[in-house]
Amino acid sequence: MANQDENFKKVVSHCxxxxxxxxxxxxxxxxxxxxxxGPYGVELKNNIKKYWWQSMVQMHENIVGLxxxxxxxxxxxxxxxHVDAFNDPLIDNKDSKKRYRADVLVEDYMEKVEGKINKEIxxxxxxxxxxxxxxxxxxxxxRVVGYLEKNAAIAKRLAEGTLEEIRDxxxxxxxxxxxxxxxxxxxxxxxxxxFSTQLGTVAGEEGKLYLRPETAQGIFVNFLxxxxxxxxxxxxxxxxxxxxxxxxxxxxxxxxxxxxxxxMEMQFFVRPGEEMKWYNYWKEARLEWHKAMGSPAEKLRxxxxxxxxxxxxxxxxxxxxxxFGFREIEGIHSRTDFDLKxxxxxxxxxIQYFDPELQENYVPYVVETSIGCDRMFLAAIxxxxxEEMVPDAKGKDSQRIVxxxxxxxxxxxCAVLPLLKNKEELTEKAKAIFNKIKFSFNCQYDxxxxxxRRYRRQDAIGTPYCVTVDFETLEENTVTLRDRDTLEQIxxxxxxxxxxxxxxVDMKNLFLK
Length: 513
Ligand code: ATP
Description:
By secondary structure, the protein is an alpha+beta fold. It contains 18 helices and 23 strands. The strands form 7 sheets. A 7-stranded mixed beta sheet has the order 3-9-10-16-13-12-11, with helices on both faces. A 5-stranded mixed beta sheet has the order 20-19-21-22-23, sandwiched between helices. A 3-stranded antiparallel beta sheet has the order 5-4-6. Strand 22 (478-483) and strand 23 (489-493) form a beta hairpin. Helix 2 packs across helix 13 (373-384). It is globular, with a radius of gyration of 26 Å. Adenosine-5'-triphosphate binds next to strand 10, strand 13, strand 16 and helix 13.
């Protein structure tokens, strides 16, 4: 655990030090659970969004895009259930006066039990060596079986319990406040997560607007507009990337849980009765998307929801092994016809689709894929963050920090570096190369500090290629091209830089996997 905490701290400070993520309004000591993306952060985030968008909209002729407004008619949130049911169970510690999500306190407890299981497995692995069978051990070792049963029982009580029963569970498990260590808890209460604001000209309840807590509803209310204008036939999807806002109580784990964040959502409209087929299709397709971008299979897993939301008949999370353990990164939800029917009822408008093959009108069912862009950013960067020993210019071992991001999402694709700063013929040549290749991809010119240090700086922001301009360049019109991961340097003609780098950083590489 200590090691995990250490790694997480390193990732967070790396994000700050290298201009990926800053606390919002830092000059005023920041705003809790709100963050700003710096020069490299915005590039990485844009690339993640581009990869998602292209994989949805460009790669599927039956998925189209939308960019709906953040503000929506207040009835939207009544219809969607967010006014009445978008609540978190909260509990206060009487001594520290700190407020927590009751379910998160219990989940943290379960995680500690999970930690004990992992410890047992690690020990056994060491003891049994190659002959160790983890599955069998999990099923037969009495201590591990005991822990697993304990967690399963807690999960069931958490999923099915009333607010009072969840409080009883916290007392029974002797969960203490992480701040004060006290076990004096208040009752559990519900708290609505939507931020509200006021429309300028209308006073009172009438003018009360919400900042959308999910982007999905903008898609639902536009269903017929989009279907008719894009002339799509079911099954088809609508994709959208945009900000969402939630008044989260547990503000921690950096950009994992924010109050203002970005979602990439796709709602896929299908015939009633065909939703499970599409649910399974999107489950697998989305997992492949994560793997193609470089998340290793062992860091990804499915987690079925124990408790279904009011609109869903099936739901699964894709969890990623963050530095603080496996957590949700994306949800795939079979939302039935709940949302469209609700909007139909509250608006009084007909939101039906005429199926030309069936010669029938119906309200389509919906399968949703919903991924948090910020969580994906955190997953990508924490997976890419690597400390390793490599030979330096003199062949001696030295430590480097490198972000092994997939080249297609790396913020800067190629750095152009004159070998020496104060040799005008080198800097002029390097600048000319930079000005030539900058039209093809994001590059950076850097002449400050010794070449070794400049390589390290590019490694730390994940730049896949460095072009170095030396004296041979002036005579032969060739440069060295250094590969971030292999550290291999090859000599290539200047005219081939663009082709070489473009090939390596092409987003196509992600789709053709
Ligand atoms: P959690 O259980 O972690 O609160 P959720 O189940 O409420 O998440 P969804 O409503 O399914 O999340 O939202 C879809 C996706 O949006 C999530 O998988 C996550 O990646 C992202 N997301 C949700 N809430 C936040 C948040 N507060 N900060 C950053 N990303 C978020």
